[in-house]
Amino acid sequence: MTRQNSGRSDPDADTISEAGRESFGTLANATRLEILDALATADSPLSYANLFERSSADDRGRFNYHLRQLRDGHVRKTDQGYELAQSGVWATNILTASVLQQGGERPFREIDSTCGNCGSSPVEIGYRGGEGIVRCRECDRQLTRFDFPPGAVRNLSLEDFVEAFAQRTRRYVGLADAGVCPFCSHRMTSVLRPGSATRSDSLPVAFDCSGCSAELRAPLGLVLSNRPRISATLFERGIDLDETPFWERGWCTFSAPRVSRTDPLLVALEMPTDDGDWTVVADENVDIRELDC
């Protein structure tokens, strides 16, 4: 699983609107961030007096000015007091995730998990450049690499990091497969694109966003595992990807599918279980054409 951002097809089109730029500017002040944090951590709306007390401001005039700037969209006043508007909730989510901060690494550590490519154990997980990375030293393969919020990386135990990274990655792939960009919610298209991942023998599903220009590359098995028909069959055969990280499954690797026809493109994926092997055949648009189970 990988993510990157492509160049836009229309170089004159703005990914970030003027309103978006102004919104970032509105937050560029320590007092305003304190106001947002106070409202985000409060159990109920705050009165003006309580809000002022929770800030480091000592000048009510300056405090009032910054509060007015936030009331343009991030904060609203109700009969009960001040509370976050939805844009304020999103802003505090970004701040909590620390996604705008530079740096942040977690050294690679061995985890009790198996490589889906060669079957070796243990594998390693680490964090650098804003991405969680799972790799196998035995076969020298990177099993998955995907973005993950640095704020969570700093606070999670190793075990919780592994679980959160695996589940978040799967859910993001599920959204992309449903045609929704997990980053900006614009329309996302998908197609099987041989050789478009990091290895020439790969047969990934390529997702492209029409909004933020995000590109995702995911193994076919991981994509299909989110679909009700496939996930139900897996569960009936004792495979629960909520319990086992997807990278432990050989059919969730980039090189697992095999081309069964080139024109039109059809790809076959064998999915071994304790009850025997079964095969899924998908076309170029990642539609299931055959399911032999």
Which SSEs are present, and which pair or pack?
Elements lengths: L1 E4 L12 H9 L3 H12 L6 H6 L6 H11 L4 E4 L2 E4 L1 H12 L8 E6 L11 E6 L2 E6 L4 E7 L2 H6 L2 H20 L10 E5 L12 E5 L4 E5 L1 H5 L3 H9 L21 E5 L2 E9 L2 E8 L4 E5 L1
Keywords for this entry:
four-stranded antiparallel β-sheet, 293 residues, Arc Repressor Mutant, subunit A, alpha+beta, 9 helices
Structure write-up:
This protein has 293 residues and is α+β, with helices and mostly antiparallel strands. It has two domains: 80 residues, Arc Repressor Mutant, subunit A; 193 residues, no CATH class. Helix content is 31%, strand content 27%. It is built from nine helices and 14 strands. The strands form four sheets. Strands 1-10-9-8 form a four-stranded antiparallel beta sheet. The protein is elongated, with a radius of gyration of 23 Å. It starts with a strand and ends with a strand. 29% of the residues are buried. About 2% of the residues have low confidence.
β-strand number: 14
Classify the secondary structure makeup into a structural class: alpha+beta
Q: Low-confidence parts lasting 5 or more residues at pLDDT below 50?
A: 8-13
> What assembly state would you assign to the polypeptide chains in this entry?
single chain
Elements, N to C (H/E)? EHHHHEEHEEEEHHEEEHHEEEE
Overall mean pLDDT:
88
Tally of individual helices: 9
Largest sheet properties: 4 strands, antiparallel
The coarse overall form would be elongated
What is the domain tally?
A: 2
User: What Rg is obtained from the alpha carbons, in whole angstroms?
Assistant: 23 Å
Report the span from N to C terminus. 26 Å
Binned strand content: 25-35%
The percent of residues in helical segments reads: 25-40%
Biggest sheet: strand arrangement: 1-10-9-8
